[in-house]
Design brief:
single chain, 488 residues, alpha+beta, four-stranded mixed sheet, 13 helices, 16 strands
Length: 488
């Protein structure tokens, strides 16, 4: 009910309010973010709404070498902030009568997934156990070293369903969790690296890399079939294993759309038809073709190098460099900075693929605050479906994994990750919030019960060691604290 009332009254004179001088408070926060001597973010675009009050400004530069001031119409890589849009499309198709439901097996849509899957297990430290049956080399993009990982394979007991994809509990996780363990000693699990290496051995098209996120020379259908060909998961389906769930969901959406509408379309075209164009998100896309004027507006991608490599707390700060200069040389090419506008441009990833201006991402948030109605008054989603996106919980999932813990999804305030983002229910000391981030420490927080949101878009990669250690503290935490402090 509270969501519906706010949807009707968004922007009303008696709606949510801000304190006097709120813009100056935010100006100071983001100016300091770019001037921080310990981790100077090159540039950031911010869009914040609190009822009628809207704040939209750019700070810093789009490229350090050129000194080009960053503009509010910069074209950003959204990375994992794409995930919630994939879940939105799935729910939208279901509303329109398509046969797609969170309880359905993924194999109903992707025949290659109809197979026996194996779960990778690696021996825990300091625990007596039988010697693993297999060993495989894993080349770490973060350390530059190759390690040989012992592992076993066991048949999966659970069936992978669509709801697992939405909640990132698919067992198809990112390689970077093994890299973070190797670099920082975090007990995240070497099974992620094993699964990545096994996919590469199986042919390569399903081999995700944190440095070639959307640059694979494969269509979405080919990519998913390659994942199935390898047949390995990092855990039982239903366990939080953050990774490629929304990518596979994109293929499910392609198939469900074709079954319902009788025509085959790429995931990107479905997004255009059902979401981007109806909402007026004119800059939004997945890939940009040669000569597209939006390419010139994409900021340079940066990362951070810890000044003291042994200082894993980041207390001595980091030096900001172009992302490719932050990583050691490996056999895996580093193309993430350019995959949006060069290379194959085949794999429409609902996981990490969207690119757009911050103002267009804000249109999506405004659409949810209005309860599923466009700015022109057209209803695209039922209010009850919006409530599912913002308040719904996929029950019966295991969110106690090591990756869930390191992503801070197991504390008493954050109660679950559903529909492509995290859910933080209202309590005595916090408003209800849905939030998530992308690889580049871009971050969004929607407060659906309070007619408010903040979007903060740098391009500072969390898959660099400085970006991992300092990105959250420097960008997300400070932005959130500053925004909430302006609420009247």
């Amino acid at each position: 009910h509270r969501v519906e009332v706010l949807a009707r009254n968004l922007g009303a004179d008696d709606g949510p309010a801000v304190i006097d001088g709120w813009e100056e408070t935010l100006d100071q926060t983001f100016t300091q973010m770019c001037d921080n001597p310990d981790c100077a973010i090159p540039g950031v675009v911010v869009l914040a709404r609190r009822g009628k009050a809207v704040y939209h400004r750019a700070f810093g530069v789009s490229d350090l070498a050129a000194g080009t001031p960053l503009q509010t119409d910069a074209q950003f890589r959204c990375f994992s902030m794409t995930k919630v849009m994939a879940s939105t499309l799935a729910l939208m198709l279901a509303e329109r009568g398509a046969r797609i439901d969170p309880s359905q097996p993924v194999s109903d849509f992707i025949p290659s997934f109809r197979r026996e899957w194996n779960v990778v297990t690696t021996p825990p430290k300091d625990v007596a156990a039988p010697a693993p049956q297999h060993t495989i080399p894993y080349e770490s993009f973060l350390t530059g070293k190759t390690v040989h990982i012992e592992y076993d394979l066991h048949p999966a007991k659970s069936t992978l369903v669509v709801g697992h994809l939405m909640a990132e509990c698919s067992g198809i996780g990112y390689d970077q969790w093994t890299d973070m363990e190797l670099r920082f000693g975090l007990p995240l699990g070497k099974e992620y690296g094993v699964a990545q290496s096994l996919r590469r051995q199986a042919g390569g098209k399903g081999a995700y890399s944190s440095n070639c996120i959307i640059g694979q020379d494969a269509t979405l259908a080919e990519y998913c079939d390659a994942i199935a060909d390898a047949g390995v998961l990092v855990c039982e389906p239903g366990t939080f294993s953050y990774g490629l769930g929304a990518l596979v969901l994109g293929r499910v959406i392609e198939v469900a759309y074709e079954q319902h509408c009788g025509i085959a379309k790429r995931f990107s075209a479905i997004c255009d038809e059902l979401l981007f164009k109806p909402l007026g998100m004119d800059s939004a896309a997945f890939y940009l073709t040669d000569g597209d004027p939006r390419i010139a507006k994409i900021p340079t991608l940066y990362g951070g190098v810890l000044r003291d490599p042994t200082d894993v707390s980041g207390s001595k700060g980091c030096d900001v460099r172009r992302y490719e200069e932050c990583l050691p040389a490996t056999s895996v090419p580093i193309t993430v900075a350019t995959d949006t506008f060069s290379g194959p441009r085949k794999c429409d990833s609902g996981d990490t693929g969207a690119t757009m201006t911050v103002s267009d991402y804000g249109i999506f948030y405004d659409f949810l605050l209005r309860g599923g109605v466009t700015n022109s008054g057209v209803r695209l989603l039922k209010e009850s479906t919006v409530k599912t996106l913002t308040h719904g919980v996929n029950a019966g999932l295991d969110r106690s994994s090591a990756v869930a813990k390191v992503m801070d999804l197991t504390n008493e305030k954050v109660q679950s990750f559903n529909y492509g983002w995290a859910r933080m229910p209202r309590s005595a000391d916090q408003p209800h919030c849905n939030f998530w981030s992308g690889y580049a420490n871009n971050h969004g927080r929607l407060y659906p019960e309070d007619g408010s949101y903040i979007l903060v878009f740098p391009q500072f990669m969390g898959s660099s060691d400085g970006g991992w250690v300092l990105g959250g503290k420097t960008v997300k935490d400070k932005a959130t604290q500053a925004f909430l402090s302006t609420w009247a």
